[in-house]
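Entry: DUF3231 family protein
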Amino acid sequence: MKPNNHIRLTSSEIGTLWATYMSDTMAKCLLSHFQRNVDDSEIAAIVELAMTITEKHLEVLKKLFEDESFPIPTGFTDEDVQPDAKRLYSDTFYLYYIKNMSRVGLATHAMSYTMSSRADIRAIFRENLNQTEVLDQQVTEVLQSKGLYIRPPYIEKPESADFVDSRSFLSGGFFGFGDKRPLTAIEIAHLFANAQTNGLGNTLLLGFSQVARSEAIRKYLKRGLEISTKHIKIFTDLLRNENLPVPMTWDSDVMNSTEAPFSDKLMLFHVSLLVAAGTGNYGLAAAASPRKDVAANYVRLAAEIGTYAEDGANLMIDNGWLEEPPQAANRKELTKA
């Protein structure tokens, strides 16, 4: 692929390329530990595919950065992982983790593709999207073949097309008044998905909190556990109130090891990615939830994880771990006499 050196990279392209490199170097560290600690051959093949795709992404990005004279981010390296450390999670959790990783990847690569202008950059993200779709399909098939795939709740099909005939459709006891109508299918979908992703995050944090070296980092991770546990309860209570099933949790998939396979820096960065993804999920869910009480929950909970994210960023700064993303020139500073 020949770079279009006559066309400058846009801010969107610079930002998405940088973020992709950072997240893929982190993913490579986690997957290297998974590779050394997986028993099931079918799951091992999924881990291997995820690693192959990740390494291919990094190879393409490094070549592009070199061609563009763009400083290669530090990201995460062999110093941030101990692949031979005792396993921290079960094979089953590896599958669910990679399934969620592919779901996030599909969304981010699609957004990066649409935000890119240069033909070669669009080709990179289009290929990333295609590779991630293959990964998502294969991990889904393995989950289904092993009876581990978790389907969202079933509801009855509508008997006919209809229109809303009352503003009470929006009522959800926003100020404590008004009967709550049943949840719509899309509201159910978002509540179930957000309960599930919080459950996965909760399990990841539980393992991280067992092995964190720094007491301050461990305290921060435990706080994240408390927040995600609370969010899971809010989402599942809304589903249970409609007599709908709720997703399972994975606490039993965390081993009893206290030997850290990952650096505190990597674990803290991973938490920041989880929070960023959760914030996006909550915003999308709030926009898709006409019932006022449901939307209000998302807005309130997004604010809570926003505060948590800020505290995490401060921890990273205090430890010298927050790698500075590309920024616009400070024109005020440049024009000082």
